[in-house]
Amino acid sequence: MGSLEALLPLRKDSLNRSLSSSSSHSSSRISVSQRLRSRFARLLRSKKLEFILWSGFVALFLSILVLFQASLPNFVAEKSKVLSSDIDVDLVGLKEIGVLDFGEDVRFGTFKLPEKFRREVKELNSSSDFVRKRQRYALRKPHLALIFSDLLVDPQQILMVTVAASLRGIGYSIEVYSLADGPVHSVWRNLGYPVTILQIDAKKLTNIDWLKFVQEPFKSLPIIWTINDRTLATWLRRHNLTGEIDLVNDWKRIFNRANVVVFPNFVLPMIYSTFDAGNYYVIPGSPAEAWEADRFFKENLRSQMGFVADDFVIAIVGSQYLYRGLWLEHALVLQALRPVFEDFSGDEDSKSHFKIVILSGDSSSNYSTVIETLAIKLRYPKGVVENIQIDEQSERILIAVDVVIYGSFLEEQLFPQNLLKSMCFGKPIIAPDLNMIKKYVDDGVNGYLFPKNNMKVLTQILRQVISNGRVSPSAHNIASIGKSAARNLMVSNVVEGYALLLENVLRLPSEVAFPKAVTEIPLKLKEEWQWQVFEAVPPNKTLGGYQFLDKDWEQWNRIKLGGSGAVEAAEEAFIYSIWEEEKLVEIANAKKRREDEELKDRTDQAHGTWEDVYRNAKRADRSRNDLHERDDGELERTGQPLCIYEPFYGEGTWPFLHRKALYRGIGLSTKGRRPGADDIDAPSRLPLLSNPYYRDALGEYGAFFAIANRIDRLHKNAWIGFQSWRATARKVSLSDRAEKALLETIESRKFGDTLYFWARMDTDPRNALQQDFWSFCDSINAGNCKFAFSEALKKMYGVKHEWDSIPPMPADGDTWSVMHSWVLPTRSFVEFVMFSRMFVDALDTQIYDEHHRSGQCYLSLSKDKHCYSRVLELLINVWAYHSARRMVYVDPDTGAMQEQHRFNNRKGQMWVKWFSYTTLKSMDEDLAEEADSDHPSRRWLWPSTGEVFWQGVYERERNLRHKEKEKRKRQSRDKILRIKRRTRQKVIGKYVKPPPEEMVNNSTMA
């Protein structure tokens, strides 16, 4: 971001260099120069300057001020040439030590983002030499959403209405969203923009943590955030001082999430520097000054500011930035005003009193003392010159004065704000001929300009502006023209700036039409702000910015700490620390379960009693966490014929997922899993999804592979279905009525082996022109969908000769499935995954190298992590059509069903042999045999997408079981032999038991 040079203490080496530069001159002059430089050096080192030192410094400065002007061009020196040459030497020394500093070393700029934009354009151009040509289909307009905190009347609404009109003029489609309603709602509606009010006060949404939308899947959504004032920075600084670090850190995450944070000037990025993540950008210009000028109450301001009616007041304003030469510029302007003051004093007929007000941003008390000392040395009477710090009262002062002089010589990239305010208040302005000022101010037309190296011109202009102690009629006329010009100043810069920014930030899909060039924006849309549409809108009567932020902070507290609302909406709110602990435990359990599954078939299972078997089984259940208390949804799902899985990635999808027994979530990442939900951890079932590249490339298709991998251990239902969270977001998910109708149809077996789907291709926003299947697929894949299918099928089936055919998908008036929202019999789903694994492997073979290296692929016009996910989205249709499955559309609202692409219309169109189960099974076994027997060293995706099984695996497992059985038999025989052959101890003696009658006799005799 732009930065300003700080007022640093003078370094010793620079002082020594300045002293050595004049060593060739006479000794007397050296001693004087050295004393002068050392005095300045000591003066600039101290941070707190005392009044006496400042006074001495100013006195010395005034003594050389005339000599300094002698060194400026167009100045006629009255001193001798010898004196002038001596003075020039001293001024060189002063220049070197930084005393004569007009801020030339100050630089502004947004260096990071423009460099990033240039680098991305270079990469895009370098990747345009693909073997396959990519093309754009202008099927729909690029769609933008404007999101506001409210719809109250303010400068931001005026700016965005103007920008929106220009963007719509070059081809953008725009919708408006707001967290709160307001008077501007009708303005947007009347201009033809759809407006949606987000009901954040509703009970069901009160406790949603909006920060979850900072994560996937919304993380890749480009966001441009505009900040127009310092309210948020001041509010966050206040909470940071009170120790609320978590709140500040959350806001840092929000700043970091935005692709670009746009400011209307270069001051605000410095105020928000704590949150700078390298994404700050400045588009200069705003209607704020003109809007505030129209609303400002201007009656009796002169008397309120202490001026009488006869006073002629001149205001000297300057840059918003502080630099070392600021006081010098004020001194030069005051000296140029001295002859005009003498004219007032010498005019006995005039009753006006001459006054000068200097608006300074320096908050130090010593600076007012400096101004007073300057006024005294320039022989201004006490009370004529006054220094006032810039604050909320600066607008009142600018309204009360008669003439405004811009007294800064600093070249800036933005038209000075105080000068713009003065023009909006209808004041004659006099300014130096700086580049940014000359761009918008024409000398003698809407303002006055003077060369900064000739202060005498400033004096001449003032004498033209003042007539008989008042502003002259010609100056009034110029000020009126300036007011009209300032009202719409920099509109073109703002409009073109936002259009160029969108051009650099947005990476539009291939089916989206590229907007027109910035130069084609209609001229009438960038000449003025859209003031006319706000004329009938009533003014605001609601809370200010701080109250709105405080309200947001209260909601943040309820989310983070829990409250009464959290009890009412327990499904959405949870204590973050507990969830973190639970997530770690679940990750550890998932890892343990995966290890147990891998080791289960390798360990020796010792035989024992039934008690041992029972004990071991119980211990295994506890380690797998299978003895948890089952919720109602899990119990209901066990007995129903269908289970619909909803793939999701990131907390942002949670509001779009269902919690019914019919549905079950499957998380594509171990992070972002819903608390208390019986969701499946996809990476634990398919380790491939732990690889970020394939998790992004496959998208929701990864959930198909994860479920199909050892499906019997997870899915116990006869039918299986999937529904994308996007279907819920687009309001095409199944209603309760449609769910009931679908279950009844499945149980009745009305259509048999059928693909049921409820997201139609002909109603998809990407297919506004109602294209056929392959044309639509081409349009969303940069024109290369058919080529990708053809090459993948050639690779799958081992076609060696030149072949570019694709399976026909006829346009018979029916529709196709999109967005992965369908239902199949479980057995058919396994067959479909078997086909998909081979197809994805073939597709990955031709795309992986270039895509993994540069992020570019021929199925997208720009870098795209989800390169071939749009091809896979339509793959279910090709398989179902050519494998002779029925295809039935289910109305998501009513549940009404309609068969699509009936068998009678498919005759002669289907590639049944290519998609038959026998063919696919033999191909699958061939691949499994290669992976299991040959163990190829090349990079190969197929074995990582699911089970590797063929007849040889079965035979090997049977042989292993037979060997284990023989081993146990041999061990048993050996044990018996060892028992028989072991050495036994010889009997030492024998005990002979007497007959029973003898024992009886013996007992009788006793």
Write the layout of secondary structure elements.
Layout: H1 12-20, H2 27-45, H3 51-70, H4 81-96, H5 112-126, E1 143-148, H6 155-169, E2 173-178, H7 184-190, E3 195-197, H8 203-206, E4 224-226, H9 231-241, H10 245-257, E5 260-263, H11 268-271, E6 280-282, H12 288-295, H13 301-304, E7 311-317, H14 326-346, E8 353-360, H15 365-377, E9 385-389, H16 394-400, E10 403-406, H17 417-424, E11 429-432, H18 435-438, E12 448-450, H19 456-465, E13 466-467, E14 470-471, H20 473-487, H21 491-505, H22 545-561, H23 564-568, H24 576-600, H25 610-623, H26 632-639, E15 642-648, E16 663-667, E17 680-681, H27 682-685, H28 692-698, H29 701-708, E18 719-722, H30 725-729, H31 736-748, E19 754-757, H32 773-779, H33 785-797, E20 822-825, H34 826-854, H35 869-873, H36 875-882, E21 886-890, E22 897-900, H37 903-906, H38 912-915, H39 917-934, H40 951-981, H41 996-1005
Parallel strand pairs: 1-2, 2-3, 4-5, 5-6, 7-8, 7-10, 8-9, 10-11, 11-12, 15-16, 15-18, 16-17, 19-21
Antiparallel strand pairs: 13-14, 18-20, 19-20, 21-22
Helix pairs in contact: 1-4, 3-4, 3-15, 6-21, 12-17, 14-15, 14-19, 17-20, 33-34, 34-39
Keywords: Glycosyltransferase, Membrane, Transferase, Transmembrane, Transmembrane helix
Organism: Dillenia turbinata
Protein name: Glycosyl transferase, family 1
